[in-house]
UniProtKB/TrEMBL annotation:
Residues that span the membrane, as ranges: 6-24, 60-81, 146-165
Species assigned in the record: Equus caballus (Horse)
Entry's Gene Ontology cellular component terms: membrane
Keywords, in A-Z order: Acyltransferase, Membrane, Transferase, Transmembrane, Transmembrane helix
EC number: 2.3.1.225
Protein name: Palmitoyltransferase
Location in or out of the cell: Membrane
Catalytic activity: L-cysteinyl-[protein] + hexadecanoyl-CoA = S-hexadecanoyl-L-cysteinyl-[protein] + CoA
Keyword Transmembrane: yes
């Protein structure tokens, strides 16, 4: 979601840059010439900047819709896009023909409030401590194998680094 927000900011900056460029390099103004004359004159003054402007406007609309969809899914449904697309693969989601129920949804509060330290101030009733259980708990042997694998790969990477670097 942060990526979409900052991408939207960068697209606005690009649109502002195009308009600033036209103000400095083209001999027309919107108030003096009118809308259609202004559009044709800036398109002939700098076709590349005009194309970049049109592309940025389309991209702005597209990213704004994606950001709104992502915010809706996270705040109202309590589910990410990946979880929504692959809900049938996960056993901890209750999937019906019309809905997907996530065990991580807070029902009355958006999912992102759970991440803030002020969540107790926002809730109207005291929350019971939530216990999160993993669908596939790690056993001791698997943890040992993962630790061994991590040590061996780290050792191999450091050895390769010492061999190839003087």
């Amino acid at each position: 979601m942060g990526y979409l927000f900052f991408l939207l900011f960068m697209i606005c900056w690009m649109i502002y840059g195009c308009i600033s460029y036209w103000g400095l390099h083209c001999e027309t103004t919107y108030t003096k010439d009118g809308f259609w004359t202004y559009i044709t004159q800036i398109a002939t003054c700098s076709p590349w900047m005009f194309w970049m402007f049109l592309n940025s406007v389309f991209h702005f609309l597209w990213v704004a819709v994606l950001l709104m969809c992502q915010m809706y899914q996270i705040s109202c449904l309590g589910i990410t896009t990946n979880e929504r697309m692959n809900a049938r693969r996960y056993k901890h989601f209750k999937v019906t023909t019309t809905s997907i129920e996530s065990p991580f949804n807070l029902r009355h509060h958006p999912k992102f409030i759970r991440l803030t330290p002020r969540r107790k101030l926002l809730s109207s009733k005291p929350e019971a401590p939530s216990v999160v259980t993993l669908p596939h708990p790690l056993d001791a042997q698997r943890e040992q194998r993962m630790a061994t694998w991590l040590i061996l790969t780290t050792w191999a990477a450091l050895s390769a680094f010492r061999i190839y670097m003087p």
